[in-house]
Specification:
Layout lengths: L1 H18 L7 E6 L7 H8 L3 E7 L2 H14 L4 E4 L9 E7 L4 H9 L2 E10 L4 H5 L3 E4 L7 E4 L5
Parallel strand pairs: 1-2, 1-4, 2-3, 4-5
Antiparallel strand pairs: 6-7
Helix pairs in contact: 1-2
């Protein structure tokens, strides 16, 4: 169950990168709110030296675990033990899995991005319900119903 729930779920990002033609080779990728290293560690195992991985985690006990895991698995990544809001470094790609409300994750994540960087937020089935307060549905005669989300940069 752990393999499916965490490892394979994390590796769905590989398929997303392929489907969206997102080139990850030689890119700096940050996983913020990584917890036990998901999705970052499975991505590093899959891509190996093709990516430079940074795991951002604010809870010291989890940071210690991530450092031990790095030695145990003999893989190279950097653990940044701080809140994402305090990180000055910028990344090509930022990923986040199960870290909170979508717009809050976007607000924090955008500050971690290099110019033209990409943020990927992994969400479950609850995304529609979560976005409902921000969505306006409209329909016009003869056209299918459309949903709109309008955002301003803040």
């Amino acid at each position: 169950e752990i393999v499916i729930k965490h490892f394979l779920d994390s590796l769905t990002l590989v398929k997303l990168f392929e489907a969206k033609a997102i080139d990850v080779e030689d890119k700096e990728i940050a996983d913020f709110g990584t917890g036990a290293g998901f999705p970052g560690v499975p991505l590093k195992i899959y891509y190996q030296d093709k990516i430079k991985l940074y795991l951002i985690e604010s809870i010291n006990k989890k940071c210690i675990f991530l450092e031990m895991l790095k030695k145990e698995l003999k893989i190279d990544y950097t653990v940044l033990c701080d809140r994402a809001e305090n990180i000055d470094k910028k990344f090509d790609i930022v990923v986040s899995r199960a870290t909170g409300e979508t717009f809050e994750v976007l607000k924090i994540g955008k500050n971690l991005l290099k110019e033209n960087g990409i943020i990927v937020i992994m969400k479950g089935k609850d995304i529609e319900e979560e976005l409902k307060p921000y969505t306006t549905k409209m329909s016009f005669k003869g056209l299918p119903e459309r949903s709109f989300i309008v955002m301003t940069k803040y």
